[in-house]
Amino acid sequence: MIEVATNITIGLVVSFIIQIAIFKLYDINISVTQNVEITIWFTVISIIRSYLVRRWFNSMKGDKQMKKYSIEWWKSLTGPQIGNEAEAMVEEVLKKWNSKVKFTWARLPDTKAARMNMLQAQPADYIYRCGSYAGFIEVKAIAHTYRLPKANLSQLPTLHKWELAGSDDVLLVFHYFTNEWRAVDPRLLSTNVPSWDLSEFTPHPTVEAALNSMGYFK
């Protein structure tokens, strides 16, 4: 407070003296009282300006310092960015498991990212093989704590087709506001509903725990 008060006082005095000199150069004749009033006005405006600028920069600084994976951080991201973050967490686990002799995986081409949509739609995000198990892994990131809209899983009929052929697929759902993962067997999801209630599936704190709950990755 002492520093602020000193700064304002010095600013008032300096401004008052400078105004006297400048007004004389331009033949502006005003009284000492008027000069004091003008100085006070400029000082008040300067204080308001400094306050607003400081608040603006503090706001931008606060956005940059948001804790990663906090609710505020997730809210600041776009839909594609949220999806990329979820997939990055999944890939971290898959890369870790890739050191196992009996496990391998691959990222399937992203049709939406392909130029002019020249690639055929893929059944899922990833394909894996672990011992006698093989199938697809589809990752979905949603804000809701347990409900997945049907529109978010348009490839469900394709996954059902693959599973009829013996594929062991996994739907990984990331509830990013609660930082929880659910691993779901797509065979348990009906295609005749507008959304799925996933509350019956156990939530897990990590990707690895969710994947392990399926029993495919041992």
Tally of alpha and pi helices:
6
CATH class of the largest domain, please?
Alpha Beta
Structural class: alpha+beta
Helix content: 40-55%
Tell me, what's the shape? rod-shaped
Count of individual domains: 2
Write a structural description.
The protein is an alpha+beta fold and 218 residues long. The protein has 2 domains: 2-64; 71-212, 3-Layer(aba) Sandwich (Trna Endonuclease, Chain: A, domain 1). 44% of the residues lie in helices and 17% in strands. It has 6 helices and 7 strands; from the N terminus they run ααααββββαβββα. A 5-stranded mixed beta sheet has the order 1-2-3-5-6, with helices on both faces. A hairpin with a 2-residue loop joins strand 2 and strand 3. Helix 1 packs across helix 2 (32-64). The longest helix has 33 residues, at 32-64. It starts with a helix and ends in a 6-residue tail after the last helix.
